[in-house]
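Kindly inspect the following:
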Amino acid sequence: MAGTTTDFFCPALSERSGWLRVDSNPCDQALSGFRVDPGSPEAARAVRSHVLNQRVSAEQAGTGGDGGIARRILESPTSATVRIADLASTLRRQGVKVVDFSAGRASEHTPEYICRVASEALLGGDTHQTMAQGTPEYRAACARKLLRENGLEADPETEIVATFGCKNGLTLALLAIMNPGDELILEDPGFVSYAPTIRFLGGVPVTVPLEPELGHRWREERLRAAVTPRTKAILFCSPHNPTGTVHTPEELDMIGRVASDHGLYVISDEIYERVTWGGRSHTCIATRPGMRERTITLMGLTKTASMGGWRIGFAFAPPPVIEAMVMGQQHLTTCVGSFTQAGAAVAFGEPPPPALTEMWKEWEERCAFMTSALDALPGVSCAMPEGGFYAWADITGTGESSEALAERLLKDHHIAVVPGSAFGDQGEGYLRITCVKSWEDLKEGVKRLKEALG
């Protein structure tokens, strides 16, 4: 492909004609030399950020100002995890045999018993919008799950709202509690979408570094020092993405003390809560003394039931917060899908059957295999995660930056990983690698990594 193209067809970026005039061919840069079809939707997604960040001028785009694109988008990074996964998909469609360790997607499909219930609901006519808060059946199933697995007695009528996964739950939570200019304390490294979502809604993300010597945990004095009169909430993830840290009750109590002392909300992203390793168990911070009334708990099935395409989850919070979140739901999305709620009600409402528990056991074995293999590579140090399913590999011994190594692995060895710098400044020097791919992909990936780093 040429390196100096002026007209580029990108249907995802223009409602008028699909054409944007840019300084150079964004596919050449975003795809690092791979040949792709520039008119494909996959290519459009892969280069979206690159095109937007060129700040298309009035002369180039003919729309005035920044090309008509809002500053909140122009000033936001893409989701590195989604972008790299889309790029890997694009390359596979072009015939490149990519081993994709980027996005947090397991190789397994959603268990059949969940799909069957959703299919029966769909074919039975359950195709209409539901209550904005979610169906009574789904909310009741979520309440049973909280009591059975987390020791929380929840009122499904006033304390639970159905969400399109945890990202939607976070958006609704922020709409409910955060005013423009309010600050939210985040982990660094932390999930790539937290800070952009806060900024989209007018808030200010304030990151506090996690301490590697503490197993990627906060130090209380540093967390306290980040609180200002504008701080509204503390947002954290456990089991943690990307480091795999699982907080103990004592560590949760530390976060709770800081929140209670300053009158803050806590937003707890617990999307990986069902997958903890080495005999560890997950504790909801809402169960800790004094925390139920100030905690917004986000849960979902995207990760632990291989239901990423379903976009289904829920939030558990005090009634006034749930009421506000429901109002946001009414105006933004109306409701979560009817038949997806039917399937998810089974996934949450019943104790996990062997179809799930055996899968989780297998995932622990894959995590152990992958982290051990990574730890044996020259210049790499990698421990078994405490929970979740990512390897957080320290690559400082290679002498390469995380972005440079990730790019080299993809371009020269067709291995897709996420550079640690995508998760924050404290992520530099690491790669995040998804461990719950098929055994075939794991072994092939290790072989290629040995060739790249050996």
About this structure: The CA atoms of residues 51 and 334 lie 32 Å apart. The first helix runs from residue 26 to 30. The two ends are 32 Å apart (CA to CA). The chain has a mean pLDDT of 88.
